Amino acid sequence: MNRPVVVVQLSDSHVGATWVDMDPVASLTAVIEQVRRLEPSPDAIVLSGDLAEHGSDSEYEQLAALLDAIEAPRYVLPGNHDDRDALRRHFGAPGAAGTPVQYAVDLGRLRILMLDSTRAGADTGQFDAERLGWIESALAEDPGTPTLLAMHHPPLMTVAPAADAIGFPDADRAALADLVGRHRNVSLIVAGHLHRAIAGRLGGCTVLAAPSTYAGFVLDFADDRLRPVVAPPGYVVHAFRDGEFASHVETLRAG
Q1: pTM higher than 0.85, yes or no?
Q2: Whether the bond into 146 is cis, omega within 30 of 0
Q3: N or C: which end of the chain has fewer CB within 10 A?
Q4: DSSP states of 212-252 as a string?
Q5: Distance between CA 54 and CA 14 in Å, rounded?
Q6: How would DSSP label each residue in 41-57?
């Protein structure tokens, strides 16, 4: 039996946050300890945004030190709380200062496109024409390799007003759906941002929003306010084999 390609997704660690009576560093440390026991060991760690609460150097230094416990290459994306250039300084993310953080990762049987979905000064997501063009070109240059698209904002409808209000504009989501529908090498789309596991579809492809390693949000289909709540820290293990993904959402005891 072929060994799977294993990608661990950590999201929304918010190092430095004080939203709820829960320590983001302690919860992330507990998640990392569990990831270290994973067999087989991960081939890659994808951090899908909001790594730090304030985007400060000290927060990223603390996060990097914690992640050193996992012996796997790590790939970072900015969320709406992050600072792109600080991510470049502390995690070696490619690209010129001030530009979107987007790049391709080659894992042999699997490719990952790390996509910057952030909008300057806003909590909502954005895929402008330039970024959509980059995605199109990156997918076209290797059409034969199954590809995972990773971003911070999940391009799905949640039906929860507060969550949908901080997602993508309808036009951006429709444009991405059209692009994904035209590229059969897109096998899975993963994101974070919403602090809970949510599955949906876009352009015929599965979309999975990962839970946070820190706090959750109350699920409410009427209230337009985001309400943080103590929740079990979580992460996702994406196992890829024989052209297919199985995504395992893992949670730990809160507190």
Answers
A1: yes
A2: no
A3: N
A4: PSS-EE---SS--S--EE----EEEEEEEETTEEEEEEEE-
A5: 8
A6: PPSEEEEES--BSS--H
3-state secondary structure of 69: coil
Whole-angstrom distance, CA of residue 180 vs CA of residue 203: 5
88 CB neighbour count, 10 Å cutoff: 19
Which residue is it, tokens 């993904």? Answer: 245
Nearest to 139 by CA among 118, 111, 116: 111
Longest dimension (CA), the chain: 48
pLDDT class of 254 with cuts at 50, 70, 90: low
Distance CA 48, CA 62 (A): 17
**SS3 state of residue 3:** coil
C-alpha distances out from residue 51 to 40, 150, 190, 196, Å: 25, 14, 16, 16
pLDDT, one tens digit per residue, over 140-180 is 999 999 999 999 999 999 999 999 999 999 999 999 999 99
110 Cβ contact list (under 8 Å, min separation 6): 5, 7, 145, 146, 147, 148, 240
For residue 18, CA distances in Å to 197, 211, 215 come to 22, 18, 10
pLDDT one-digit tens code per residue, 55-77: 999 999 999 999 999 999 999 99
Domains (range + CATH), the chain: 5-251 (3.60.21.10)
